[in-house]
Amino acid sequence: MKKKFEDLLKIYHKNGFVKLGRIASTSYSKKLSNRIQDLMNGKKQYKGMFFQLEGEKGKYKNINKDSEIFLGPSKRYRKIKDLEYDNLFFKIVKNKYLKYFSKNLIGNDISCMRAMVLNKPPEHSSKLMFHQDVSDNWKMSAKPNFTFWMSLNGATKRKGCLKIIEGSHRYGKLGNGHFASKRTLQKFKKSKIKYLELKAGEAIIFNNFLLHGSEQNKTLNMRLAFTVCLMDAKIKHTKSQKKYPKIFGKGSLEYNDIKKIKAIPRKTYKI
Predict the structure, then answer these.
(1) What is the CB neighbour count within 10 angstroms for residue 12?
(2) Predicted TM-score of the model (pTM)
(3) Domain annotation for the chain: domains and CATH numbers
(4) Separation between Cα atoms, residue 93 and residue 89, nearest integer Å
(5) Are residues 111 and 247 in contact, defined by beta-carbon separation less than 8 angstroms?
(6) Spatial separation of the C-alpha atoms in residues 150 and 205, rounded to whole Å
(7) 51-103 pLDDT, tens per residue?
(8) Which residues does residue 202 pair with via DSSP β-bridges, in sequence order?
(9) Which of 168, 138, 162, 166 is nearest to 239 (CA)?
(10) What is the distance, to the nearest Å, from the Cα of residue 232 to the centroid of all Cα atoms in its chain?
(11) Neighbour tally for 7: CB within 10 Å
């Protein structure tokens, strides 16, 4: 197992991402998908959980960035955050791959910038342009390190699977805006663009400096993916000086801490 992890880490360093294979069984992936459906229709509720609706007509520019709460039953929620406090998703957050990569890329004390589901609603989902997950707008004392991305119900090219530019992480921060400019994208050959199709329960890990995005969902089914962004536990939100939920290391969240949670611990920052 150690050799397998070492080989995966080498691929990650070279390409900026690595496919991990199956992390969750088909049945557990289905259980996670059902939990998201329950959150979307209001059958399962956590007070204070972050919800964001897809933009009207599937346009990214129409997304209301200030919308953060449950606004009634809908399959059009594109983001549901704070899932590190859900007992089903917490088991994925603490998986052995995340623990190994965290220790080898960051250290022993690890916090979670965000754990969320990304949904592409059927037919009317927005296209996400190439970008890096290192935005200055997040007001963090340092950049987050890497992201775990797992498909819950299958991610194909037609559904809007993750697409990346292989090796782009080596260039560091590209530009001042959130989305990559045409000039930036011209640096890379089209052959470096990879569409990372995954079956339910399969996952990848990618460097937060890796350029990535996704196309619209052109199917009649939702595309559900669970993502976890991890970083050094010392990192704070610069405005509130508040730290993020600790996942690994001394004093980190454990299953007994979250299994009875009905309300999300209050935060003073947006991520």
Answers:
(1) 23
(2) 0.95
(3) 2-52+75-258 (2.60.120.620)
(4) 6
(5) yes
(6) 9
(7) 999 887 767 777 777 778 999 999 999 999 999 999 999 999 999 999 999 99
(8) 22
(9) 138
(10) 17
(11) 11
Which one is predicted more confidently, 262 or 62? 262
Tell me, letter by letter, the H, E, C secondary structure of 112-148. Answer: EEEEEEEEECCCCCCCEEEECCCCHHHCECCCCCEEE
Separation CA 44–CA 99 (nearest Å): 28
Closest CA to 162 of 269, 34, 19: 19
Which tens digit of pLDDT belongs to each residue from 161-211?
999 999 999 999 998 778 899 889 998 999 999 999 999 999 999 999 999
The C-alpha atoms of residue 74 and residue 128 are separated, in whole angstroms, by: 21
Distance CA 127, CA 165 (A): 16
Q: Helical H runs in the chain? A: 2-15, 26-41, 87-93, 96-105, 182-185, 255-258
SS3 state of residue 217: coil
Q: For residue range 26-40, what is the model confidence (pLDDT) as tens digits?
A: 999 999 999 999 999
